[in-house]
Amino acid sequence: MAAALLVIVAYALRASGLIRYPWDWSPDEGLFLGWARLLLEAPTRLYQRSVVPLPESYGPVFPALLAPIVHAFPRPLAAARMLAAVWTGLGGWSGWTS
User: Fold this and answer.
1) What is the model's pTM?
2) Tens of pLDDT along 9-44?
3) How far is 79 from 83, CA to CA, in rounded Å?
4) Is residue 5 a contact partner of residue 12, using CB atoms and an 8 Å limit?
5) CB-CB contact of 72 with 36 (8 Å)
6) Domain boundaries, the chain
7) How far apart are CA 27 and CA 8, in angstroms?
């Protein structure tokens, strides 16, 4: 158990360096930010018939969580990544405690 926790902490510390990376490093990063922007600016266009399938990594609620960040920051990547890290941690924690 201690070894598993140590691996998770080491991984989280290493992964936290990605928050400062200035460009998209994952294709779904831009998709989620784009969906959050559409939710704010043109909600009727958000999920049309010819929509790209939603990646299952964060689920369909994630663009709604990102919307305040997209609204508040002109360059939302770092703040969105912090939210994604927290969201991932909560998902991992709920899976671990179940």
Assistant:
1) 0.71
2) 888 888 778 887 777 667 777 788 888 888 899 887
3) 6
4) no
5) no
6) 32-98
7) 24
